[in-house]
Amino acid sequence: MNTKAKHYIEKLQLKLHPEGGWFREVYRADETISSDHLPKRYGSARCFSTSIYFLLEGVQFSSFHKLKSDEQWHFYDGSPVIIYSINETGILETIKLGNNLADGEMFQTVIKRNTWFAAEIADKNSFALIGCTVAPGFEFDDFELAKRNELLKLYPKFKHIISKLTKT
């Protein structure tokens, strides 16, 4: 394991995440929005916002998944992160999150709700530490991990990337 990644995992008290990588929730708003004031896709009240630390190391990846809310990713340290997203109209986009603006990297990006997305680090000998902010706040009820075969049926032309960034 990368020494700096190990340091962050220990100091930030990160745990394994179901989609891949390491995480820890660091903020959950103490105020909520009632379900009456949210779109119908939410089945109950949600807090205003949540945020986590998220770390990928080596060959780890964030499996294709989608959320009912928008999610903002913020780059902190390490290798650039490549985010692949397939929007609701079936268009695949690639975003490079990092700190080299001259190379087209961005410090932060937003993944829109109901978008299938996955991520990997560019340098497999390194790590990436990022933050993720979700509003309305994240609940596991709003999280859907892709099933490889189902995603391949929907988007067969993206077979290579879907096969690479989903778990069997």
Question: Which strand order spans the largest sheet, edge to edge or round the barrel?
Answer: 1-2-5-12-7-10
Multimer state? single chain
* Number of helical stretches of at least 4 residues: 3
- Structural domain count: 1
Contiguous runs where pLDDT drops below 50 for at least 5 residues: none
The helix content, as a percent range, equals 10-25%
What spatial form do the alpha-carbon principal axes imply? globular
What's the CATH H-level homologous superfamily? Jelly Rolls
User: Which structural category fits the helices and strands?
Assistant: mainly beta
Q: Tell me the span between the first and last alpha carbons.
A: 24 Å
The major pleated sheet works out as: 6 strands, antiparallel
CATH topology: Jelly Rolls
| Whole-angstrom Rg | 16 Å
Strand and helix order? HEEEEEEEEEEEEEHH
Any overview of this molecule?
There is one protein chain. The protein has a single domain, classed as Jelly Rolls. A hairpin with a 5-residue loop joins strand 1 (15-16) and strand 2. The longest helix has 9 residues, at 3-11. It has helices at 3-11, 148-154, 159-164, and strands at 15-16, 22-28, 32-33, 46-47, 50-57, 61-67, 70-78, 81-86, 92-97, 108-111, 116-121, 127-135, 143-145. Strands 1-2-5-12-7-10 form a 6-stranded antiparallel beta sheet, with helices on one face. Strands 9-8-11-6-13 form a 5-stranded antiparallel beta sheet, with no helix packed on it. The protein has a two-stranded antiparallel sheet with strand order 3-4. It is built from 3 helices and 13 strands, in the order H-E-E-E-E-E-E-E-E-E-E-E-E-E-H-H. It is mostly beta strands. Helices cover 13% and strands 42% of the residues.
